[in-house]
Amino acid sequence: MKLTFYGATDTVTGSKFLVETERTRILVDCGLFQGVKSLRSRNWDRFPVKTDSLDAVVLTHAHLDHSGYVPVLTRRGRFRGKILCTTGTRDLARILLPDSGHLQEEQAKFLNRIGATRHRPAEPLYTSDEALAALKYFEAVPRHEDVQVGDLTIRFSRAGHILGASSVHVSDGRRSISFSGDVGRASDPLLKPPERMQDADVVVVESTYGNRRHPEVDTAQELAEVVRDTNARGGVLLIPAFAVGRSQMVLHELAKGMAAGTIPRVPVYLDSPMAISATELFVANDEDSRLSDAERQAMCDLVQPTPTVEQSKAITHAKGPMIVLSASGMATGGRILHHLAARLEDPANTVLFVGFQAAGTRGEALTSGAEEIKLHGRYFQVRAQIRRIEALSAHADYREILEWLRPMRKPESCYVVHGEPSARDAMRVRLQDELDWNAFAPPHGFSTLL
After folding, report:
1. What is the pLDDT, as a whole number, of residue 116?
2. End position of a domain, from candidates 392, 414, 431
3. Contact residues for 231 (Cβ-Cβ < 8 A; gap 6+)
4. How does DSSP classify residue 191?
5. Are residues 85 and 34 in the same domain?
6. Element (H, E) at 253
7. Same-domain pairing of 58 and 172
8. Are residues 393 and 209 in contact, defined by beta-carbon separation less than 8 angstroms?
9. Are residues 402 and 366 in the same domain?
10. Could you report the per-residue pLDDT of 272-327, keeping only the tens digit for each?
11. What confidence tier does 357 reach under pLDDT thresholds 50, 70, 90?
């Protein structure tokens, strides 16, 4: 087998790993590059592998940095294979991919309208119609069952992180590779813990938190304090939250806190059509969930969804106290930008980040102390309080990943991906020092023969 890295090497995003034999080609993950412009521009580059040469795409999960490039791959009918994933990933992709196309169309229209673009006209990477067309290629397969693609055997196992997320084991009968995907936390209150990853000759492991530990704090208490402080100022609490995973986590914690009386009962708005749909899916699907039916229903009973543009605009100008959850989680796009433009310059308000913030994103700038940020072509002063609860992350930290990997048979080599350079190198060193693994941080385009 031959393994080539076409993404998630020098950055967290853009996961794409090509596995080849003499007879078969599959792509494990097919994600978008996100963050700084130099990374986003890679999405427009010609993909170095001929689309019609791929027998299948195998998705570890539905987050866009792992699945968001699929509509580019499938448009114009060049892709003739299947997109294999779990049922949860397929169902989430039906929500995320069309929404991604729609947001890109809307962003292009907005930039053209205000003239804030160097391209005339600005174009979306793909449209919502192209994303919808891509869904016909998806085929859901059960975990723990072998799936044959040419001379390769593929098997999924639960990785936690989000609904449907899995690690992927690929074998040609002689040699094998295990891809971690994004690894969730054993202590995640929403999802069942990651399963032990299958032994393999080569391991490809994520390193999003490769140089960090999650703080041992009472997240429920910390969230309650932020809500109470903002409420006392009569302000609005804005929570930029990933539509899948973090939004449901925050809703669950808010519902628990309000039921227990530790969080004041204020209006809670979920202002993201994608997050609304993902929450409904999470409530209906108990395959990966740790919550009871009653606990999942409490999340829905708490929130006031605002699916339409008119409803979103109404809460943008409403007075507090209230809580608004809106995508995207790194403040890179979506409705949260309009909320930030309306609320960021008022010191009564709070912006609370509850997930990883990639380099070059507005979320990273705000959590790093930026005094102003650019929104819709103009700069806004940061006068609102900026808070962060890192322990709500859906990613395992380096200690949790090391303990998850420890029971595995020692692989011949391990490739560390899906992290910022410092995090990736820190994980590489720890794998060498603590597990005695031969760990490497491959560059973009690196190939190896197994």
Report:
1. 62
2. 392
3. 237, 264, 266, 320, 321
4. B
5. yes
6. helix 246-260
7. yes
8. yes
9. no
10. 988 999 999 988 888 899 999 899 989 888 999 999 999 999 999 899 899 999 98
11. confident
Cα separation, 202 vs 190, whole angstroms: 31
How many CB atoms within 10 Å of residue 359? 15
Are 17 and 54 in contact, with CB atoms under 8 Å apart?
Answer: no
Paired residues of 177 in beta bridges:
170, 202
Say how far apart CA 14 and CA 7 lie, in whole Å. 5
pTM given for the model: 0.88
Q: Is the dihedral of CA 331, 205, 247, 71 positive or negative?
A: positive
Q: Is 171 helix (H, G, I), strand (E, B) or coil?
A: strand
Question: Could you read off the pLDDT of 84-142 as tens digits, one per residue?
Answer: 999 999 999 999 999 899 888 988 887 788 776 666 788 899 999 999 999 999 999 99
Determine the Cα angle at 28 with ends 13 and 61, to 5°.
65
Whether the Cβ atoms of residue 405 and residue 435 lie closer than 8 Å to each other: yes
Instruction: Check whether residue 228 and residue 204 sit in a common domain.
Output: no
| Rounded Cα gap, residues 351 and 238, in angstroms | 5
129 and 171 part of one domain: yes
Token pair 């999802």: residue: 191
Tell which of 367, 392, 417 closes a domain: 392
289: domain CATH number is: 3.40.50.10890
- Specify the DSSP element, H or E, that contains 56: strand 56-58
Q: Are residues 55 and 190 in the same domain?
A: yes
The pLDDT mean for the chain works out to 93
What is the H or E stretch that residue 380 is in?
Answer: strand 378-381
Q: In the chain, how many domains are there? A: 2
Does one domain contain both 157 and 260? Answer: no
Nearest to 163 by CA among 72, 272, 257, 296: 296
> For residue 342, what are the contacts with CB-CB under 8 A and spacing of at least 6?
316, 317
User: Which residue range is the domain that position 95 belongs to?
Assistant: 2-212+394-449
